[in-house]
Amino acid sequence: MLRNGLEPWHLLVVAIVIIVLFGSKKLPDAARGLGKSMRILKSEAKAMREESPGPAAAAEPAPAEEVQARTIRAAPGDAASARLVPEGDATPR
Questions:
Q1: Can you spell out the DSSP letters for the chain?
Q2: Considering the chain, what is the average pLDDT of its residues?
Q3: Rounded CA gap, 17 and 25, in Å?
Q4: Alpha carbon of 42 to those of 31, 33, 53, 55: distances in Å?
Q5: Which of 23-27, 29-33, 80-84 has the lowest mean pLDDT?
């Protein structure tokens, strides 16, 4: 009975329940939103990897007069979430 745990017909039942609960109109919108969030997460992670200096340079704080604003790029097709962020901001979050 429980030899395989999750069989293909289990997945079919789960898919039917999800479609009944959320409706066929909301599922594509939810998938689109999830995809957009994943693209943003990937681009931010890539930007953090590219910007991360070595351990020796991380100990030095940036002088206040050299702080410049930079633009955080949004996912392709999502220009509304791009914003200017001061680089080297020392305010606590």
A1: --SSSS-HHHHHHHHHHHHHHHHHHHHHHHHHHHHHHHHHHHHHHHHHHHHPPPHHHHTSPPPGGG--EEEEP--TT-GGG-EEEETT-----
A2: 74
A3: 15
A4: 16, 14, 19, 23
A5: 80-84
What are the C-alpha distances in Å from 55 to residues 10, 58, 60, 77, 91? 49, 5, 10, 35, 21
Region 59-77: what's the mean pLDDT?
Answer: 61
* Residue 78 pLDDT exceeds 80: no
Mean pLDDT of the 21-36 span = 88
Q: Does residue 88 contact residue 69 with C-beta atoms inside 8 Å?
A: no
Query: Is residue 86 within 8 Å of residue 60, measured between CB atoms?
Result: no
Q: Is 88's pLDDT higher than 70?
A: no
d(CA 16, CA 61): 55
